[in-house]
Amino acid sequence: MMLYKERMIHHASYHSTRSTALKHSFEDILLAGLAPDGGLYVPSHLPHLSPAEIMRLAQLPYAALAYEIIALFVGDVISPKELRNLIDATYASFRHPAVTPLVQLDHQHMILELFHGETLAFKDVALQFLGRILDYVLQKRSEKLVILGATSGDTGSAAIAGCRGRASMDVVILYPHGRVSEVQRRQMTTIYDNNVHCLAVDGTFDDCQAIVKTLFVDQEFRTQHPLGAVNSINWTRIIAQIVYYFYAAFRLGAPSRAVAFSVPTGNFGDIYAGFLAQRMGLPIHSLIIASNRNDILTRCLTTGRYEIEPVVQTLSPSMDIGVSSNFERLLYDLHDGDSVALAELMASLKRTGGFSLSPHVHQKLQQYFMAYAVDDATIHATMQQEYARSGMVIDPHTAVGVHAARQAQMHAGRDDVVYVTLATAHPAKFPDAVQHATQIHPALPRHLHDLYEKNERYTRIANDVEAVKAYITRLH
Length: 476
Fold this sequence. Notes:
Blueprint: E1 13-16, E2 19-25, H1 26-32, E3 41-43, H2 51-57, H3 62-74, H4 80-92, E4 102-106, E5 109-113, H5 123-141, E6 145-150, H6 154-163, E7 169-176, H7 182-189, E8 196-201, H8 205-216, H9 219-224, E9 227-229, H10 235-251, E10 258-264, H11 269-279, E11 286-291, H12 296-303, E12 305-307, H13 327-334, H14 339-352, E13 354-356, H15 359-368, E14 369-373, H16 376-390, H17 396-412, E15 417-423, H18 431-438, E16 459-461, H19 465-474
Parallel strand pairs: 5-15, 6-7, 6-9, 7-8, 8-16, 10-11, 10-15, 11-14
Antiparallel strand pairs: 1-2, 1-3, 4-5, 12-13
Helix pairs in contact: 3-4, 3-10, 4-5, 5-6, 5-10, 6-7, 10-11, 16-17, 16-18
């Protein structure tokens, strides 16, 4: 069987959500991450797959499917052979042969396990690929970057795993001191490669993210210290995540079977990838935003008002986010590519801490998404109930998604839709919460058996842009 179809090489172009004037190649936006005007890069044209093409893709194993999807966005900057090699190497490293296997909770509810990569989180699916393709392009250009990222827990370790030991880059990760789990922290701070730098910021994830965004729009600093992005502001993260929506839906009988996805949501990149899969032609019945108590997205969908509130710590720390960066991309789409209107909303957010959607845009948002917010007591009860019902041990973030899926299922009242909850992290990343709910202490996989025995290496740093600038300056 031929796994890879040779595609006609084409040119893919991108522009900022806040201005369509300048067009950029995939290679440019891969390295840049964030646009100079503070916007996020989006494709000038979103590929659309015909029903016949979707039927052909349904037969492919994961890596071959990933090539078919990702090639649509890369264009002519990387040869098909090199792209296939990068993708094959990425997914050969995963611990499960299906890469993202499905596990059944009940007759109408599945779990999509996205935690079989090196760092036990869904971020590995995209960041193992991103690290490889960044290294490939930088070596081709004989250039070096400082890969700069902020993490609420999982992005940092996955980015480090994808970028460690690569001579073409230093990787600098900002994380909120005292606000990630011990496993998440140790997966970052026990990596000793000389190009890895972990900064424990005295603040929240939103503070870390704000510092990263500030540095990306500081053109004078970036001229002296070229920066690359690993957060989901980098478009390459999004396109790699589109793949598993297609893969899961195909395994469940799509396009002839209705499939809904419930996604534990913080920065909105993961569920936005599902939205893109739907727009590309994949029949998705519904997309469910599953929030914890930091529920800016659920509130926006309910009221039409997007307004920042103080971030609170929860049992699902990777979702403790007040401003969902990738929501800007969705707003751009919902405004039919009106970059002026989008820029006005973002200016209002910066100036006043919020904005209101027009009735028309709010209605479109509600047509595409459902949303539910889940508190800590419900997270705990869901972990407890699922273990009692099926013997399934799930982490707190997945529990948010499971509860939201069950709420959506109950309100829909249909038995012809299969619900898929994205399991975004292995339960061993959050052993205290899991043990408290289930009395089961989830064991780390064999490759992380000595994680608690290793010495940690990190730098405590003030919640200050200038402090981070000074640290990066000292790297050169």
